[in-house]
Amino acid sequence: MRKQFRDLASPADAREAIASLDLTPTAETAALEDARGRVLAERIDAELDVPGFDRASMDGYAVRARDTFGADEAEPAELDLIGAVHAGNEPDVTVESGTAVEISTGAVMPPGADAVVIVERTEERDGSLVVYSAVAPGDSVMPAGTDIAAGARALGPGTRLTPREIGLLSALGVDEVPVRGKPTVGIVSTGDELVRPGDELRPEAGEIYDVNSYTIAAGVEEAGGVPKLYPHAGDDYEEMERLLRRAADECDLVLSSGSTSASAVDVIYRVVEERGELLLHGVSVKPGKPMLVGTLGEGSAYIGLPGYPVSALTIFRTFVAPAIRDAAGLPEPRTATVEGTMAARERYAEGRTRLMPVGLVADGDGNTLVYPVDKGSGATTSLVEADGVVEVAADVEYLAEGEAVTVQLFSPDVRAPELLGVGEDDPALSRLLDRVSSPRYLPFGSREGLRRLRDGISDVAVVAGDRGDATEGIDAVELGSWTREWGLVVPDGNPDGVSGLADLVDDDLRFVNRDSNSGLRTDLGNAVAALADERGTTRHEFVEAIEGFDRGTKAFESPARAVAAGRADAGLGLRATADSLGLDFVSLGEQPVTVLANPARIDKPGVGSLRDALAAGDDAFADLAGFERGQTPR
């Protein structure tokens, strides 16, 4: 029986349901050396004065203040010098009327003394001390208990222990402290298709590597919890029940990802309903509608996250991380949000709250711009392309260009990249970007690169092929360019004897193309059109005769890897890729690759670093992996 989503809860109701869960861990004791960053569970009172004695705060001489009254440069006071006291030593001399004792900063004031004359206002002469300035009782003396007095409240419960508090506790002689426990969070990823990183993957069987377990575990730790990973749970009721019950017995909170939607195989909600209490099933947000909130067993808290990585991280950041921080006693980090303005208009009208993944980029003046990153919840790469989310209310139909927004960062450590580039993917470019500090490059193809540059989102666009009219109306500065050899990648030894495009039709070969945004696809289309003209047929008819022409891949190595795996007889690609994978190559020509920059951001350090790398000359390009000597900067 399918579980239908009815009466989706509002985001406020979801937060209220999570707040009703008890995630509070048991308090524990931590050694002082391990206590940094922990939160005090109880008040700590001082059991001694700090300092525990009157001490000198300056180098000088301990005296009775009354013996210096009236002393000045014209009529100095003269006292007998009877000894010395240094820091860490117990005084063995008493200051009496008419006497003085040399004293170091931090040393115990000797009996009888009530002030210190600083050394600059004195002079030693034949065993006597000449004092040129009068002092009052208490001058240059730190009385016992000045820092904190015995019995005083030193630190209160809920105090986060930073180096400052650690120093105070050290001064009080405290070697261990009562701290709030860190909530233990069990993480169970569900789905028969999941494989742990490092294990053998069978893509042909629909298997994928488990992203959520490690992503969410890192988020739990950052929020102040202790993650505990459990084995994968298949889409099987008994197995899922066993794992969830075990996690509930061992953890303060259980998080699962996947198996929360309305699919027939999604049985996890049944486990919660039968073994605990289901408080909420479905939230009116995008992404992340299929969220579960409830309890397992004896009230153990449970939250079910969506299966897609971006959705799972978004829901975790928005709803779960605050609850973990609250249980650990940690405040929301000050750097967890950032203010910015929309780089371009974004339409949205779906009637439910949208948690819009966004990226950050600085404009030429250093202001923060925000742009949407939306490749679909299932796109794992969005995890590194997105810096956080903007919460868009259900009744908002669009965000205007320049509109102020608040970005909830995925991590307090997130910073805008030094360089944001969009465009063609290329092995030479990958190596060039290694010479730029903190770049972000989105390989969306030449067409998308130009669009983002035109819209003022990216710093640079990388465009392959002859640009023609594509750059018309786009204000851009050329940073540099190079050429690359493109053509057909075929198996080692070229068993089908491929010599050109005509063989794709004549020999009925299986072909893997690039997507329509790629500059390689554009040049291939032009070459196909020219060949069709030679044969007296139409481009459409020629394309229809090539198996796989209309199915494109996004990555430049994907066609070549399909050939290497035996899934295709030929693929569109680069000589550099064929060489790196040990495949043969049939050249179809050379293609220019040009880097264009937003003129308003030409002075950004990241843009300057890329320009310098491009200008490094032939030697720099010859060192690029897969880049041949004949392919030099233009």
From TrEMBL:
GO terms for molecular function: molybdopterin molybdotransferase activity. PROSITE patterns: MOCF_BIOSYNTHESIS_2. The keyword Cytoplasm does not apply. Residues 186-326 form the MoaB/Mog domain. Coiled coil: none annotated. SMART domains: MoCF_biosynth. Pathway: Cofactor biosynthesis; molybdopterin biosynthesis. Keywords: Molybdenum cofactor biosynthesis. GO terms for cellular component: cytoplasm. InterPro entries: MoaB/Mog-like_dom_sf (IPR036425), MoaB/Mog_dom (IPR001453), MoCF_biosynth_CS (IPR008284), MoeA-like (IPR038987), MoeA_C_domain_IV (IPR005111), MoeA_C_domain_IV_sf (IPR036688), MoeA_linker/N (IPR005110), MoeA_linker/N_sf (IPR036135). One of its GO terms (biological process) is Mo-molybdopterin cofactor biosynthetic process. The keyword Chaperone does not apply. CDD domains: MoeA. NCBIfam families: Glp_gephyrin (NF045515), molyb_syn (TIGR00177), PRK14498.1 (NF011068). This is Molybdopterin biosynthesis protein. It comes from Haloferax marisrubri. The lineage of its organism: Archaea, Methanobacteriati, Methanobacteriota, Stenosarchaea group, Halobacteria.
